[in-house]
Every structure is written in C-alpha cells, then in structure tokens.
Amino acid sequence: MTAGERPAAGSRGPGASSGQRVADWFDGRLGTHTLGRKYLRKVFPDHWSFLLGEICLYSFVILVLTGVYLTLFFHPSMNEVTYNGSYVPLNGIRMSEAYASTLDISFDVRGGLLIRQIHHWAALIFIAGMLMHMMRHFFTGSFRRPREVNWLFGWTLLFLGLFEGLFGYSLPDDLLSGTGMRFVDGAVLSVPIVGTYLSFFLFGGEYPGDDIIARFYSLHILVIPGIMAALVVAHLILVVYHKHTQFPGPGKTERNVVGSPFMPVYLAKAGGFFFLVFGVIALISAVASINPVWSYGPYRADQVSTGAQPDWYLGFAEGLVRVMPGWEITVAGHTLVLGVLIPIVVFPLLLVFIGAYPFLESWVTGDEREHHLLDRPRNRPVRTSIGAAWISLYLILLAGGGNDIVATRLHLSINTVTWAVRIAVFAVPVLTFVATRRICLGLQRRDRELVSHGRETGVIKRLPHGEYVALHRPLSPAELHTLTGHEQPRPLAPGADRAGEREVSEAGPPGG
Ligand code: HEM
Ligand code: HEM
C-alpha cells in the first residue's frame, strides 16, 4: 500500500459464510484482521514471575467492578443522621451519612458485605502484587533501556495506588479511618508557612469540616481510577511495543523472544488465571473479616481509637513519624515541627529513589545499551543488595508503624521498641547490604564451581594407587548455557592496578 492509500474494505464474495461476512464487516470498519494478524501471535515467555503483573491487572479489574457496585449504595456525605438500621448496638447513635450508608451496605444491602470485603481484600492484593511485580523487575534489571519509561508508568501506578487506598478506606468515616485523617491533617499542618492554609483548603474549613469525604470520593471513584486506567493501558501498550524480556536460557538471545503465542495458549491461560485470582479473593473475603467498621463506631474529632494502624502499605510512612523524635524549632517566628516534617519529606524520597533508579543506575554505570535478557540477581550484587536494603528499611519502618502492637504482643516497653527501631533504621539496611552482597558473591562462586567441575554426585572413588577422588557429573549444555549466559567481566591486562583488579572481579560486570 502506498502512502495515503486506504485499506480495502471487506471483500469476500457472496459465496462467503455468514461468519466470514461478519469478520469482513468488522475488518472493513475497524481493521480487526490486520491488527489481529499482527498482535494475536505475540509471543509470551513462560515464567511464573510474569503472573505478578497479571495479578495486578486482574485485581485492578476486580476493584473497578466491585467499586462500581459500592457506588450504587454509598452516600459520600458528612451530614449528620441518627442511625436506625439492622445493626442494633448502634441504633439511635448520631453519625455521618457516609458511615450510616457503609453500615447499610454491610447489613442491609444484598451481597453488600461480601462486595465490600472483596473490594478491600482486592485493594490489599493489588498493592502487594504491584510491590512484588516491581521487585521482580528491579532484581532482574528489566527496567533498563528501552523500558525506563514503562518503569516510570508502573511506578506512578504504585504511587497512585497507595493514595487510592488511603482515600478509599477513609470513605466510611469510622473512628479508625478518622484517626488516619487526623494524621493526614497533622502532616499537612507541618508544612512550613502554608500548612494551616493548606489544611483549611483541604478540609473546606477547620478540621474535620464537612467536605473531606465528598472530596475524597471524587478522587477515589473518578480522578485516580481514570488516570490509573489510562496508565495501565499505556503500560501494556509499551509491553507489547518493546516485547517481553526473558531469562537467559538455551535459544534465548537479545534479539528474539521464546515462548507461546498470545492466541490461543496465553489467552486461555490468562482467562483461567483471572478466574483463579477472582476466586481466591472472593474466598478470602467470604471467610476473613476485614475492616469491620461497625465495631469501631463513627468518627468523632474528640475521640481516638487505640491500636490504630493504617493499611499495611502505608505502615512505613506511619513508622517514620512514630520513631522520629518530637523535635520542634522556631525560625523567623514560624514554628517548624521537624518531628513530622522530616518524615513527610523522607517518605516520598524513599519512593522517588525507586522511581529514579533506572536513570541513576545507567548514569553511574554508563550503561546506555538496550537489554532484553534479564539478569539473575546474584550476577548484579550491588543492585541486588540495594534492593534488599530498601526492603529491610521498609520492613523496619513497618514494624515502627505498629510499635504499640509490637510492644503489647511481645510484652515490651513501647520506648524499647521505638529505640530499637530508631537504631535499626540506620543499622539494618547497611548490614543487609553487606550480607546480601556476600551471599551474591558466594552464589556466583558456586555457579563458577558448577560450571567448571559439574555437580557433586556423592560418590567417592578410590584409584588403584590409593588416592580418593570425589566424582562430579558435568552439567547439561542447557544448564551450562543458563549459568554462563550473562555478561562477564573481561580480565584486566597484566600490570593493571591491583586494587582495581580485585574490585572488578568481585563486583561482577561494571556497576554490578
Ligand atoms: C484502583 C484501586 C482502588 C483501591 C486501591 C480501592 C480501595 C478502597 C478501599 C481500601 C476502600 C475501603 C473499603 C472498606 O470499607 O473496607 C474503598 C472504598 C470504596 N471504594 Fe475503592 N478502591 C479502588 C477503586 C475504586 C473504584 C474504581 C471505585 C468506583 C468506581 C471505588 C469505589 C469505592 C467506594 C464507593 C467505597 C466506599 C464504600 C465502602 O467503604 O464500603 N473504588 N476503596
Ligand atoms: C496496575 C499496576 C500494574 C499492572 C496492571 C502491570 C501489568 C504488567 C504486565 C501484565 C506486564 C507484562 C508481564 C510481566 O512482565 O510481568 C508488565 C510489565 C512491566 N511492568 Fe508492570 N504492571 C503494573 C505496575 C507496575 C509497577 C508498579 C512497576 C514498577 C515500578 C511495573 C514495571 C513493569 C516493567 C518494567 C515491565 C516490562 C517488563 C518486561 O518487558 O519484561 N509495573 N506490567
């Protein structure tokens, strides 16, 4: 076809079957045949870790479906009403319409409680799935050129997901989520100079105001899911455009993709997997109670519940605030609440570091090449150790976010727990970095041993002259290929700097 020429409309003659005519009709108008021919044969590599992205996708779909059902019954209003419904212990209590409608969804709407539970469990699995999916891309280096932009799309999805969850669990306006709102207000107030103004702006007046639930509602059901849906589509378009990365193995190169075609193999698997994810979430939601707002009671600004934690994915932000000493200074007549301000600056920085990592790594290593074969984490000890240190920091802060629960469960003083977390925040990531790097180097050495001597058989043989030897079985060519199919540092020329030489051979390829 020359430039400007139009594609021919469906052109089968009158003898064509009705199925062919329907296909022609669509092809002539939507170009489905051409698109299908091009993309339905797209190759998907077979590896379990690719399912993590699918878990994110399916739980997002489940969130949208259940979310739409909840919108039919939820009233995003802070008007005060007196409850008079099926949950007798709260009858006659004054509460916001939002809280009353959540009670109605839980006790009076058919299937309401199950859908609420599915929505909440799906949110937890969605964010856990995103973190696992992100870690798998981090540790295998799939974010390298040309996928840096897709990494950023994914990272933005994670960032939005965290806030989408916060806005979602704030909607019922119960005592627990209201305590979280108080935390948000405190964080906003700590912003120097404009904090008070921002708080009045956000809450539509003095905290808690009458508007915050309706505002969060618009963000939760419209703005953020809209942006997320667009980003998911863009993310998947880029996956198709770049084609998948793959783990090294026989027949796999930087220039091909080995796997099964989208149609029919992958589509059948993916369809089945969707129902599996839906089924498991529905099962968990049917048997494990989550966010029983009726037992917390309605939010009142003069009350606070003990043992209040955010959902786990925001626990590390809570931890930062809880373990920070309550420092306050005055600068030019303005009070700076450093005890809150520093954590709310560090919290996004911890995430921004992850978002910027692909660019930082290629800047430090000077590696601008395209990569389509994945790394085995042990072959990149520095990156793997950075990832492990980041996870350890996240977990320590998560424990800090639940310092009261840790203290009561382990019968410790809360000050002991807080001090332990303060020390661990600095010490544990460093120790984790060092230990992980040593483990990676050890694993590399084991690989080298396997490649050069084969696997131990456990058989000891005595030679005629009396010597004992351990027998090794050589690896298969496929195993050898997998273990050696990574970039290997080139030995330095004789006479090169001895310190530099050790550095290169220990750290693997540059920037390893
Ligand atoms: C995409 C990610 C989403 C996440 C992470 C998320 C998360 C949450 C969470 C944790 C809750 C609290 C549930 C509870 O009461 O225990 C919630 C409530 C709610 N969500 Fe979502 N949600 C998402 C998307 C949506 C969408 C797309 C809609 C609507 C189209 C929606 C509508 C609602 C409504 C109406 C409520 C309040 C009802 C209630 O709490 O019972 N959500 N959301
Ligand atoms: C709504 C959330 C997300 C969905 C639905 C999603 C879905 C997917 C799917 C289905 C794939 C292809 C299969 C695979 O490689 O696993 C993929 C690839 C990818 N995702 Fe995500 N993802 C999400 C979030 C993220 C996050 C949070 C990151 C990282 C910060 C990320 C980074 C990537 C990268 C770099 C690829 C390309 C890897 C390759 O080609 O091998 N994604 N995503």
Automatic annotation (TrEMBL):
Catalytic activity: a quinol + 2 Fe(III)-[cytochrome c](out) = a quinone + 2 Fe(II)-[cytochrome c](out) + 2 H(+)(out)
Essential cofactor(s): heme
Keywords for the protein's UniProt record, in alphabetical order: Cell membrane, Electron transport, Heme, Iron, Membrane, Metal-binding, Respiratory chain, Translocase, Transmembrane, Transmembrane helix, Transport
The keyword Electron transport is assigned to this record: yes
GO process terms (BP): respiratory electron transport chain
Spans annotated as Disordered: 1-20, 484-512
PROSITE patterns named among the record's database cross-references: CYTB_NTER (PS51002)
Topological type in the membrane: Multi-pass membrane protein
Annotated Low complexity bias: 1-19
Residue stretches making up the Cytochrome b/b6 N-terminal region profile domain: 22-248
GO molecular function terms listed in the Swiss-Prot or TrEMBL record: metal ion binding; oxidoreductase activity; quinol-cytochrome-c reductase activity
Keyword Nucleotidyltransferase among record annotations: no
Subcellular location(s) of the protein: Cell membrane
Protein name, per record: Cytochrome bc1 complex cytochrome b subunit
Organism: Streptomyces liliiviolaceus
